[in-house]
Design goal:
The protein is of the alpha/beta class and 297 residues long. The protein contains 10 helices and 6 strands. Helix 6 links the parallel strand 3 and strand 4.
Length: 297
């Protein structure tokens, strides 16, 4: 299944989208795509088939988001916790990821034509070398695209992200690149994997589970949360529209909370700005080094 696909919505579904678009559309939506394994059990197919159906649903959902005018999407594709599953399932998941990232590279011309920027957030050091190289390729090829952003959380947990943020800050303090008085919420926020993205306006989780599974815990403090009972491969355009309608209903409350929490703008001196630049440079170096990896056939 292609990452970039043509719309197959019927006229009623297209009309529903136009009606919902008369209201406020979230700029950034994140998804916890849960229910692939339960879908497999429900339909008496293998787990890998359930995960494959989940990818097909992702590509379809991305098209719906594009039609709605949602600028940025973040998806929880692979948790660090997934490494604790059986070796067979982990191997199957990683092989599926390798195939889908390769498809992403094969369609890089389409991504650039549509102006889609791919970002991968997570701990790249935990990822097999071949996939790491594919990720580096996709990120660097599309980094200058401005029309839409897809963030793929791969080998990700919020606990690891916050730990990595604090570790980078501590190292900079020990090297006297930052001072203790520089440390603030703003510093931590801008040390996260997601530092180039705004907080999600809307988080959607499927499968009826009412939990966050260690996903974007720092970023969703003011987000609208929508839980759907649908298993992810069964998620429909109407389920997405229901989430957006829920967001539109709670938007006024979100704006009020945001105004109440808004305080003085963060103070950023030259040390802090240099620290932020070094983080970006380190990320760029890691991606470029990944491209030099020699993978076995």
């Amino acid at each position: 299944m292609s990452w970039i696909r043509e719309s197959k919505l019927n006229w009623i579904q297209r009309l529903a989208i136009r009606i919902v678009k008369t209201g406020h559309i979230p700029k950034h939506v994140s998804f916890i795509m849960d229910g692939n394994r339960r879908y497999a059990r429900k339909n008496n197919v293998g787990k890998v088939e359930g995960h494959s159906k989940g990818f097909d649903k992702l590509s379809e959902t991305l098209q719906w988001c594009f039609q709605l005018g949602i600028f940025e999407v973040t998806v929880f594709a692979f948790s660090i916790e997934n490494f604790k599953r059986t070796k067979q399932e982990v191997d199957d998941l990683l092989e599926l990821a390798r195939q889908k990232f390769q498809r992403l590279l094969d369609e890089s011309d389409k991504l650039n034509e549509h102006g889609i920027c791919i970002r991968v957030i997570g701990n790249l050091y935990l990822i097999p070398e071949e996939i790491k190289k594919q990720i580096a390729d996709a990120v660097l090829i599309t980094k200058n695209n401005k029309n839409a952003i897809l963030n793929i959380a791969f080998a990700y947990t919020s606990s690891d992200e916050i730990t990595n943020s604090v570790t980078n800050i501590v190292k900079s303090v020990n090297r006297s690149e930052l001072m203790l008085e520089d440390i603030s919420e703003d510093i931590i926020n801008n040390s996260l994997y997601t530092r180039h993205s705004p907080e999600p306006d809307l988080l959607i989780r499927t499968s009826g589970e009412i939990r966050f599974s260690d996903f974007l815990l720092w970023q969703i403090s003011n987000s609208c949360i929508y839980f759907s009972d649908k298993l992810w491969p069964e998620f429909s355009v109407y389920d997405l529209l229901a989430g957006v309608l829920y967001y539109q209903r709670c938007k006024n409350d979100l704006e009020l909370t945001s105004r109440q929490l808004k305080g003085k703008p963060p103070i950023r001196n030259s040390r802090i700005m240099s620290y932020f630049c070094r983080l970006d440079q380190n990320d760029q170096m890691l991606l470029e080094e990944s491209l030099k990896i020699k993978c076995s056939d």
